[in-house]
Design a protein that fits this description.
The structure holds two protein chains of two kinds. Chain A is an all-alpha fold. The radius of gyration of chain A is 24 Å and the shape is globular. Chain A starts with a helix and ends in a 5-residue tail after the last helix. Chain B is 60% helix and 0% strand. Chain B is built from four helices and no strands. In chain B, α1 packs antiparallel against α2 and α2 packs antiparallel against α3. The radius of gyration of chain B is 23 Å and the shape is elongated. Classes of the chains: A mainly alpha, B mainly alpha.
Chain lengths: 276, 149
């Protein structure tokens, strides 16, 4: 017999470990609350302004991974075998990129990680039978919107990193921010775990004869025709508005100075290093 | 994978993406990164819609995501112009620069400490190259000389 299987048979399988943890920590609510506190505290240390040491950042990352993994283990029934391994891999790309995006202090790298999130979500769209949307997400979002973000970042902040990218708000506001966001996640997980499927859900095929995009277009341009027209009007209005605002000429620099004096930017000029 | 397990998996991932976007929105101070975090929340919502669409075999969820993408494009165009103008007025992408718009009774936010290394990295001295060729004439009528582009 292969010694690997002898070794593997000693390790308790995932269900046994899960049942043990379940016994130990009581109900779902308590576990979710604990995982929330764990994840929020890890993020609190990890986000910009938390800690700069390499080891402490690593520890914070481990804590976040533990907390998020715990949450997923509580709420997610999808088994990790067969074809679902690919689904898991794509989901992990999305989640890990999202965590790295909000913890990265360099805004450029944040945008690049967001493009990775879009790649992950686009892959999940493919798995969930939305081929057109998967491609559209990658092409429109990652290809156009994120690139626009990068351009604006280059226009507005050409000197690279700024001090406010390495700082966040104060200590407690930062923890509260992390805790609020993760508590939102925990609440959504708790609610989604209680969903029971409606028995008579009609499982109609979204890709008849493999012609997904044809069916998609037929649906889009028949049932949702007015919404398509409205979306076109909205896009035109947004384009015109963006151009009108961007080309607005203020009379010289004086207008800006007056506005700066009126609103008062004492905080910026006193605290931040000047770039002029 | 069964249909229902697939739905719950997508809902879990969607909830995590949504929550992380919320955390980023609360925690970050760069206006553009805050806006990216809102887009991350939109991705979470889109994923949930697509998963429900698959469970019921209906197109409506996917249609909604199509319109989410188009509205997000409009939103990005408008918001980036606004961010750029805000940045021109305050000279920085820092959202704390606009805290003078707060209520009278709210205490101002003051940065506790700016780490030394952050300031040092920002005020980095770039090397000055030896001049070569003919020096171009500087325009005296151009008052707005930008030290960097």
């Amino acid at each position: 017999m292969n010694p690997f299987w002898l070794f593997a048979s000693v390790i308790p399988d995932f269900e046994t470990i899960k049942a043990f943890v379940w016994e130990w920590f009581g109900g779902t609510e308590r576990q979710l609350a604990l995982a929330t506190v764990l994840t929020a505290t890890g993020l609190w240390k990890w986000v910009p302004g938390g800690t700069t040491g390499r080891v402490s950042r690593m520890v914070a990352g481990l804590v976040v991974a533990l907390g998020l993994g715990w949450m997923i283990a509580i709420a997610d029934p999808l088994p990790l075998r067969g074809t679902t391994i690919l689904v898991w891999l794509t989901s992990l790309i999305a989640v890990i990129s999202a965590v790295l995006m909000i913890t990265e202090s360099r805004p450029f790298y944040s945008a690049i990680w967001f493009a990775m999130v879009l790649a992950g979500v686009g892959g999940l769209f493919l798995f969930y039978g939305a081929q057109f949307l998967g491609i559209a997400t990658v092409a429109v979002y990652a290809g156009a919107i994120v690139v626009t973000f990068l351009f604006v970042l280059m226009l507005a902040q050409p000197h690279g990193q700024a001090y406010f990218d390495r700082l966040s708000w104060g200590t407690w506001p930062r923890w509260l921010g992390c805790a609020t966001g993760i508590a939102m996640t925990a609440t959504l997980l708790w609610v989604s775990a209680e969903i029971t499927p409606i028995a008579s859900a009609p499982a109609s095929d979204l890709a008849p004869d493999g012609e997904h995009v044809a069916a998609f277009g037929a649906q889009l341009f028949s049932k949702h025709l007015i919404a398509v027209e409205l979306a076109g009007i909205l896009l035109t209005a947004a384009l015109v508005g963006a151009v009108a605002m961007a080309t607005q000429r203020t009379p010289g620099q004086t207008m800006n100075r007056q506005l700066q004096r009126a609103v008062g930017f004492s905080n910026l000029s006193s605290k931040g290093p000047s770039h002029e | 994978m069964s249909e229902f397990q697939a739905l719950q998996h997508a809902l879990v991932i969607a909830a995590i993406l949504f929550g992380l976007g919320l955390v980023g929105f609360f925690v970050r101070r760069n206006m553009i990164v805050m806006f990216l975090c809102v887009e991350l929340m939109l991705q979470g919502v889109s994923l949930a819609l697509v998963a429900w669409s698959r469970l019921y075999g209906q197109w409506d969820g996917q249609m909604l995501v199509t319109f989410i993408i188009s509205v997000a494009a409009c939103e990005a165009a408008i918001a980036l112009v606004l961010v750029l103008m805000l940045c021109q007025y305050s000279g920085s992408l820092d959202i704390a620069g606009w805290q003078n718009l707060r209520e009278e009774s709210v205490r101002p936010f003051v940065d506790q400490e700016v780490p030394e290394e952050a300031i040092r990295a920002d005020q980095k001295e770039w090397p000055i190259l030896t001049p070569a060729g003919i020096e171009p004439k500087k325009s005296t009528e151009e008052p707005l000389h930008r030290s960097h582009v």
